[in-house]
Structure formats: C-alpha cells, structure tokens
Amino acid sequence: MCELANASRSGYYKWLRHSNKPDKDYSDHLLIKEVFDKGKGKYGWRSIKMRLPKMNHKKIQRIMRKYDLLTKIRRRNPYKAIMKKRLEHRTFPNKLQRAFNQTIPSTVFCTDITYLPFNGMYAYLSVIKDIATGEVVAWHLSSGLEMTLVTKTIKQMDVHDDALIHSDQGFHYTNPLFIEIVQELKMNQSMSGKGNCIDNAPIESFFGHMKDELDYQFCKSIEELRAKVAEYMKYYNDERKQWTRNKMSPVEYKYYLLAQSIGGQEVCS
C-alpha cells in the first residue's frame, strides 16, 4: 500500500500513531466556520478576526487554509472598468505641431486660460481663438476656476466637422466634461507638449497684447471687468489692425481669406 500511495513506511506509521488523536484545531474551526457561514462565504481572515478578536490572525489564516474555507472573491466588472477608463482625464497628441500659418478660417482653433488681477481680487479668462484669422471666437470670464469656465466658452462654438482645437495639458482640457463637449461638436483635440507654452504661441501672444493694452487693474467689480473685456474683444476683432494679416483686423482678414478661397475655387472651375 505504501508503494502504491508513493508514501514512506515511516510516514505511514507516524500518521497511524496520530490518526486516533482528536484534531486540536477542530473547536476553533467550528467558531471560524460559524462566522464564515454568516458572512455567506465572503468574509476573509480580516473580517473574521474583527468578529473573533481573541483569536490570533495567523491561526485564523492557517485554519481557513486547512479546512478549505475559501473566500468568494468579487470579480472585476469589465464594463465598469471600461466606463471608469472613459471617465478618466485624457491627454491627446500634438496634431497642430506649431503649424500656425493657417489660411482657412474656422478650421483650427487654440484655447487657454489666463488670470486677471484687479482691485485685490482675481478673475479668470478663458478664450478660444481662430488661428487662421486671429479672431477671438469665444470667451468667458469667471471669478473661479471651475469647469464651467471652459465648458461655457466652448459651448459658444459653431464649427464645421473635424475642426481642430489645440490647448495645453491643463486639468480643464483633459477633463471628461470638456472632452465630451468637443466630441459632441465633432471636433478633434490637440495638445501641447507638457510644459511647452511655445506649442500654443498664438493664444499666449493674444494674452500678452491684451494685458498690455487693456487697463483692467483698477476695476472695482467683476461686472466692470467683464464689460471692459467685452469692449476690448470687440475692438480686437473689428478694429485692431495686424501687420502680419495684411494690416487688417481679424474680422476683415477672415472675409479676405474667404474671398481668396472662393476666388480660387472659381479659377479652378
């Protein structure tokens, strides 16, 4: 029998000497099993230890292994994992690649946030700019940095499918709420390299000019500041001539580019 069972004779006789002795763990096993069964097989050793505080945790682990008290492990729900991944912050590759010499209006945009200190307070300005024309197509001013700062800005957009919007990798632009609105508008997202402001130079240049030209520091309220910003945006789009845009304002240059595009199509036809 030992040869068939692949067991040593000494091992067999040792087992035989102890086989009639009572199991010293049996009474503790009953206590553990009672708690285990009350937990419907879901309690691990930590949960059982909390309910049997006088029993050593190593002893609980040993007895559970010995008597095959295996905890039912909650399996990961793949659908929940997919949903969680979908709701995480995401970054996008730099599709713009500093191609700032755009010639077709309403196809490539850049966006960013800047802060405006005034009267001992701060306001935050979100702007979206058409790279081809230089026109500010949407903006929103707020006293806080909540997500509505950017969502209210982009919801002003009326764009063609597959337009590109470029930003940095800031919290607002990687946020699922912003990404969802971009997708609803059927736009594509592009992002600067991490910490590389040159990748978004057009919007940085705009903020620099605005802060030089707009006298906003002495506004007494955010309402007064908002009125000043609105006045400047209208001036910038309709009146401020730009040397690199044929000495035209952004709106004038937009119509110039559209006329050029239509004229080119007529020549081709």
Can you identify the CATH superfamily of the largest domain?
A: Ribonuclease H-like superfamily/Ribonuclease H
Report the uncertain regions.
Answer: none
From the N-terminal CA to the C-terminal CA, the straight-line distance is 99 Å
Write out the strand line-up for the largest beta sheet, numbering strands in chain order: 3-2-1-4-5
Give a short account of the largest sheet. Answer: 5 strands, mixed
CATH topology of the largest domain: Nucleotidyltransferase, domain 5
Radius of gyration: 34 Å
- Count of runs of 4 or more consecutive helical residues: 11
Q: What is the H/E string? A: HHHHHEEEHEHHEHHH
Share in β-strands:
5-15%
Mean pLDDT: 88
Q: Could you say which structural class the secondary elements and strand pairing correspond to?
A: alpha/beta
